[in-house]
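Saturday, quiet lab. Running sequence design on the C-alpha cells for the scaffold JK sent over.
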C-alpha cells in the first residue's frame, strides 16, 4: 500500500485529503508544519508528499528543499491557494513532481496522485534493475505482461549468440525491444544494424545483406560490404522476417548454421560473429503451412521467443506511456502539457489502439503540435477515441445544388483549407505538417505548390 503524507496548516484540508485518498486505498499521514513533516518522513517510508506552499511561518519551498535533501527520490506535489507561475517554476526546478492550485476537485487529485505513483513505481523497478548491473531498456511499462517481457530481455541479453524471434502486432515496439537486448548485452559497444525485409525486392535485399564483388551484376561497379559483415561482432535486426523471399531464407539459414557468408560474385567464405534478432507481425506457423516460410529457418530463429502484447492487453501501461511521450514532445515542441483530465485518461484507457504504441505516440505528438494548453482534455482527442460526444466537429459539408456540383473542385477546396490551417498551426514547418497530416513530405510539398500556399 502506497504511503502519502499530506502537509497543510488547515485542518479541514488535511482531513478532507486524508479521507479522500484513504477511500482510494492509500495509507495517508498528515503534518501541519516543517518539524512534523521532516519527522514523519524520517520515521515512515513515504512514497509521495502533498505539500502546501503557505504554512504560516514555515515556507513550503524551504520544506521542499529540506525534503529533497533528506530523501532525494521522494515525490512531492505542491498545492497552494495563492501560487503564481514564478513559484510553480521555482518548485519544479527544486524537484517537485507537479503543481496544483486550490481549490481543486477530488478527481484532479486522484489523477495526479495516481500518475505520480505509477511513475514512481516504474522508477523503483528500473532502479532495481540498475542495482543488478542491468542497463535500462527504452521499453516503458510496469504491467504484469511487460514485467515478463523485461525479464526475458534481461535474460537473453546475457547469452550473446542466441537468436531471438520477437513477435507481436504492428506498432508494439519490436525494434525498441531488439535495441534493448543489444544494449544490455556484451555486444553493446559493437554495431546494431536494422533492415526491414519487406521494404526491398529480393535482389536488392540479397545485396544489402550479403554484399557483392565488383562486376557481380550489371550495376555492381565496386565492391559492397553487406549488412551481415557490417554488423560483425554486433547485432543484426531483421524486421518483418516473414516477408523475406524463400530463396533468400535458404541463404540466411546457411549463415546461421555455418557462421559464414559469401558475397555475391565471390568464391570466398567470410567468417562472421553476429547475433540475429528477427521480428514479425505474421503468424509464421501459418506461413509454414502455406509454404511461404521455411520450417527449418523458423526453428533456427525461434531459439528464444519474445511476444510483445498489444496495448489493449496492457492498459495499465497507458499512463506511463503518455507521460513518456508527453515529456519527449513537450521538449521538442517547447510546450508545457503536464496534466491529463480524468475524462481524457478514461478515453485513452478504453480505446482499443489498433495501431498500438505507434498510434499512441503519433496521437500525443499531434496533440502537442495542435494545442498550447497545460492539460489534455477530452475535446482534444480525435473522433475515433472520443466519439461523437467528445469529438470536435469536422464542419458541415457543402450543399449540393440541384444543377449538380463539381466533386473535384469541392475536394480541392477542402484540401486547401486543411493545408492552410496546418501551415498556420506549424508556422510553415514542413516536417511538422507532414506528421500532423500524416502524408509524406514530398507529397506535401507538391500539394503546397499546387494550392500556392507559401
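Result came back. Writing it out in full:
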Amino acid at each position: 500500500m502506497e504511503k502519502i503524507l499530506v502537509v497543510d496548516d488547515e485542518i479541514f484540508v488535511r482531513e478532507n485529503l486524508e479521507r479522500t485518498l484513504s477511500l482510494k486505498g492509500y495509507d495517508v499521514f498528515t503534518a501541519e508544519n516543517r518539524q512534523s513533516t521532516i519527522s514523519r518522513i524520517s520515521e515512515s517510508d513515504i512514497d509521495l508528499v502533498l505539500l502546501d506552499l503557505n504554512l504560516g511561518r514555515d515556507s513550503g519551498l524551504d520544506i521542499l528543499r529540506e525534503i529533497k535533501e533528506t530523501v532525494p527520490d521522494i515525490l512531492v506535489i505542491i498545492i497552494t491557494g495563492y501560487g503564481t507561475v514564478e513559484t510553480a517554476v521555482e518548485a519544479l526546478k527544486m524537484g517537485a513532481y507537479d503543481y496544483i492550485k486550490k481549490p481543486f476537485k477530488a478527481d484532479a487529485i486522484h489523477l495526479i496522485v495516481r500518475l505520480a505513483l505509477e511513475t514512481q513505481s516504474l522508477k523503483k523497478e528500473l532502479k532495481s534493475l540498475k542495482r543488478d548491473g542491468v542497463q535500462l531498456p527504452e521499453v516503458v511499462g510496469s504491467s504484469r505482461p511487460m514485467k515478463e517481457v523485461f525479464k526475458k530481455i534481461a535474460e537473453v541479453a546475457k547469452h550473446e549468440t542466441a537468436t531471438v524471434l520477437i513477435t507481436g502486432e504492428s506498432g508494439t515496439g519490436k525494434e525498441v525491444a531488439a535495441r534493448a537486448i543489444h544494449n544490455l548485452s556484451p555486444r553493446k559497444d559493437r554495431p546494431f544494424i536494422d533492415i526491414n525485409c519487406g521494404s526491398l525486392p529480393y535482389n536488392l535485399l540479397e545485396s544489402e545483406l550479403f554484399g557483392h564483388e565488383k562486376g557481380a551484376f550489371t550495376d555492381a561497379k565496386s565492391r559492397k560490404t553487406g549488412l551481415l559483415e557490417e554488423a560483425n561482432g554486433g547485432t543484426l535486426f531483421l524486421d518483418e522476417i516473414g516477408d523475406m523471399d524463400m530463396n533468400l531464407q535458404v541463404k540466411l539459414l546457411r549463415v546461421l548454421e555455418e557462421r559464414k557468408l559469401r558475397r555475391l560474385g565471390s568464391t570466398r567464405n567470410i567468417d562472421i560473429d553476429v547475433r540475429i534478432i528477427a521480428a514479425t507481425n505474421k503468424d509464421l506457423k501459418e506461413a509454414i503451412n502455406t509454404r511461404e516460410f521455411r520450417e527449418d529457418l523458423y526453428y533456427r530463429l525461434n531459439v528464444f521467443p519474445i511476444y510483445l502484447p498489444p496495448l489493449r492487453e496492457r492498459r495499465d501501461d497507458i499512463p506511463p506511456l503518455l507521460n513518456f511521450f508527453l515529456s519527449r514532445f513537450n521538449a521538442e515542441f517547447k510546450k508545457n502539457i503536464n496534466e491529463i483530465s480524468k475524462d481524457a485518461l478514461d478515453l485513452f484507457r478504453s480505446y482499443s489502439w489498433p495501431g498500438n504504441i505507434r498510434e499512441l505516440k503519433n496521437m500525443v505528438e499531434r496533440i502537442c503540435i495542435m494545442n498550447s494548453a497545460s492539460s489534455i482534455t477530452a475535446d482534444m482527442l480525435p473522433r475515433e477515441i472520443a466519439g461523437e460526444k467528445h469529438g470536435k466537429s469536422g464542419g458541415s459539408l457543402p450543399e449540393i445544388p440541384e444543377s449538380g456540383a463539381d466533386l473535384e473542385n469541392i475536394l480541392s477546396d477542402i484540401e486547401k483549407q486543411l493545408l492552410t490551417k496546418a501551415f498556420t498551426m506549424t508556422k510553415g514547418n514542413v516536417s511538422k505538417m507532414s506528421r500532423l497530416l500524416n502524408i509524406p513530405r514530398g507529397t506535401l510539398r507538391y500539394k503546397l505548390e499546387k494550392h500556392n500556399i507559401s
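Notes for JK: The mean pLDDT is 85. The chain is about 50% helix and 15% strand. Ask whether to fix the surface positions before the next round.
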